[in-house]
Amino acid sequence: MKEVALVLGGGGARGLAHIPVLEAFDDLGVKPCVIAGTSIGAIIGAAYAAGMPGEAIRRHTVEIFSDRSNVMSRLWRLRPDSIGSMFSGAILRFGELDAEKALRAFLPEDFPETFEELDIPLMVTATDFYGSSLTVIKEGGLFPAIAASIAIPAIFRPQLVNGRVHIDGGIANPVAFDIVEAPGRLVVAVDVVGMPTKEDPSRLPTRIEAAFGASQLLMQTIISMKLRLHKPDLLVRPPVDGIRVLDFLHTKTILDKAEGVRAKVREDLSRLLENS
After folding, report:
1. Which listed residue (98, 128, 168, 191) is catalytic?
2. What gap in Å lies between CA 274 and CA 276, rounded to an integer?
3. What is the pTM of this model?
4. Kind of pairing, strands 164-168 and 159-161?
5. HSE-up of 198 (CA within 13 Å, CB side)?
6. What are the φ/ψ torsions at residue 167 (nearest 5 degrees)?
7. CB 37 within 8 A of CB 223
8. pLDDT tens digit sequence for 162-180
């Protein structure tokens, strides 16, 4: 069978729409030769690369986020070690949550610690803050790499990777399909960036909505520019508009909304494989 690379983009809770795509791969018995993940795509991509089928990832995600008290209990573990660490002088410091701590609070306890333990090669992206460039991590500690990839400014504190400061990978490359291209290889890329809700275009957004919405617009601009130059063999865009970056408590709604993607990917990928 022709090699197929799978690219899972960033988008916060919208990234739960990656799961039906994984289930489509499982339906066809297609195992990616490599997975590239950005932000939430790095988390879900790592789980899939570790050998968790799409259905198991769905089950774990629904189990975690369908119980609000369970989520709050896990979030409580992310509190700073001291009240003083939340302040710089007399100023409250935002974005001080520990991303690696968050991963360990929500991922399965037996999750692999290193890239070398994965069943499928994985490439995790992060943005070098001072270098203004993309960093691709393929070896070593898995949790620190994913923590860097999900370090959304104003939510998680930046992460050090090889002695350099990194933030969310989506800032530099929201859907990194270009890093897995190779002669004779099919590339399936999943874009879950979405757009701000447009139910009432005259409604002024809150400060948080404006900040995260601006990030969406920035990432969509990057994606559009990349697509003008080159496109993956299959670009999947689940219906995620209007879903906010932190809407994890709406997991079932997000999955239900994206359910049709499974059959569509199964059909399109099957056709690509037959014609290649």
Report:
1. 168
2. 6
3. 0.92
4. antiparallel
5. 4
6. -130, -175
7. no
8. 999 999 999 999 999 999 9
Catalytic annotation present for 133: no
Nearest-angstrom CA–CA distance, 6 and 43: 14
How far, in whole angstroms, is CA 39 from its chain's centroid?
A: 4
- The span from the CA of 252 to the CA of 100, in Å, is 25
98: annotated active-site residue: no
| Amino acid found at 90 | A
Q: Give 221-273 pLDDT, tens digit per residue.
A: 999 999 999 999 999 999 999 899 999 999 999 999 999 999 999 999 999 99
For residue 251, what are its two tokens? 């997991």
Three-state SS across the chain? CCCEEEEECCCHHHHHHHHHHHHHHHHHCCCCCEEEEECHHHHHHHHHHCCCCHHHHHHHHHHHHCCHHHHHHHHHCCCCCCHHHHEECCEECCCCECHHHHHHHHCCCCCCCEHHHCCCCEEEEEEECCCCEEEEECCCEHHHHHHHHCCCCCCECCEEECCEEEEEHHHCCCCCHHHCCCCCCEEEEECCCCCCCCCCCCCCCCHHHHHHHHHHHHHHHHHHHHHHHCCCCEEECCCCCCCCCCCHHHHHHHHHHCCHHHHHHHHHHHHHHHHC
